[in-house]
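FW: tagging you since you asked about this chain on Friday. Here's the raw sequence from the shared folder, copied in full. Didn't touch anything.
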Amino acid sequence: FTSPAPQMPMPGYNGVNSFQGNPYQPSYLQQTGRGAPMPSSSNPMSFNSQPQVHRVSQLDVQRAMYEELQQQQNSAQSQQQDRWQQGRPSMTSFPDMRSTTSDLRLHQPPSNQIPGLDMDKERLKAQADELQGVVDRQTLEIRRRNEELLELQRNHEAFREKFILFREGVRSKTDETDARCRKLEAQLRASKDELANRRAQLEEGRSENGFHRLDGLRSVVRDLERKADALSTEKKDLEAKLASIRSGNQSDIQNEIHAKETMISDFRTRVEKQAEFIRFQTAKVAELEQHLEQLREAPEPSSLQSESDYRERELEAAISHNARSLEMQKSKIADLRSILEDERRKAEQLRESVREAEEQRNSLQRDFDSKFEQLESLKMEQQQKALQLSIAKRNVQDLQIMLQDTNARKSGHDLQQTLHESQIELSAEKSKFDTLNAELLDRKRVIQQLESKVRQVNLDLEHQQQASDHESQVLQTYCSALEMELQALHQQHRETQQQIGNYEGNMKSYYDLQISESKRHEKQLEDEKDQLNKAVMVVERDIEIMKSSLRQKQEMMSSQHSADGARMMDRIQQAGRSADDMDRQIMNMRQEVSDLEARFQQQCAIAGGGAAGGGAAGGGAAG
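HL: got it, structure written out here
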């Protein structure tokens, strides 16, 4: 009747021998006061309450069983004595007997004359001992399985709590990462919009203020080339003013160039840092892949405790890695914010410099307008002087003609004097004309200097335009670096989601394995139950055979030895009592089998519900 011990614990057993008593459905422990029933609403496999198992030692159970048997024997003896004291039984009480008990006592044969009775008793006793040994072994096995089941339940509850905490932590970290990604995307869009607005403003300023004003300046210069008048009086003041303006522009340009060089060096260092961070991330990814390969190649732990510890360490390592990566991303976001603030300040400084350059251009234009008005006035004066010069030339010619006429008619002292005076006037007019030519040459030189200064201003504007273009290119590279970083964050988020999905798949396979193991042990228990039922049927058949043999022997002995009826009656009563005891034991065994079957079905239903809950939790995490 023995069977190999299964590997997994049998759910539903509480570690108490059901032959000696069942603390969940007590029979005699309630009568003796040695045990208390367990409430029917208690669930030993519940994850929210601890199992309330009433443990009863084997010695107390045996003592209670012995006391119950003693009470039954005493009650049976007292009933028998009362029955014999009431009087002799009639012949109808014992139809097979032909004499009274007193007569049978006189002719009672010895006990060794009943063939096969002692052998049957010994065989029954051996079977009872064998059944008792089987029951004891089953009791020990049930206790061991119950302890293993409780340990497994505690481990499963702890692992379930850790998994719930890990899932909530990963969900919160995922939400924080998504929020940060959205924030970075919003900042990137804002920086792109600001860059586009700035570029549009630069283009607009370049198109409206630069080219139009340069054309105006060139037209003014061309007008100045045509209009050479009296500028010698303000030559020194204008040169001093232009020198001061030029020196101020050079200092501003040098400062701006120095600021641009520092910004370029900062961007280079940041690019190097980003490259170093990318190399660090790739090394980390390679290390994680190598660790995953080692985990795949490593053998799985033998016990459930070691497996849970192993998974716990793996989860802690993953959580710490995610925390470190989030801290690095946080510091990187702070650096990016500081970079954006610096760029905004630099943009404001550039706007201020552009406004100052526009103000300087406006002041130059006003100066050129005033000079143009002065040139117009000088031109009018020059025309008047040219008209006077032509009039003077005509007068000189007229005077020469008159002199020639007068020389032909008369020669005298007055004519010579007038001729000398006219020559003096002509020399004076000639000197005036020479001075005017010198002034014109000086004005041409001033105009050439102004043209060179205008060309220098144009070169400065071109340098500023090139610097702004370079800055826009740097901002574009910075935006592309931000986009690459966002893509890396999205990739890391997807890898984390994939790891969570793999872990949930492993948990689902683990629960499926546990369910298959429970089904296999259920089948083993059903086989053992069938074997016990077969053993009980064999014992019942043997008891029936013994009863029939005893009845036959009783009839034979009553017919052959009617005088030995009293002793035979005692032995028959003892055999009947032993048969009744065996019947009670068989009924107890049947009750035990039915209780075990009901408890096993209940625990299977609870275990199936727990596994379904675990699968639902895994599905929720995957969702």
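FW: The radius of gyration is 61 Å.
HL: agreed, and Residues 413-560 form the longest helix (148 residues).
FW: great, closing this out.
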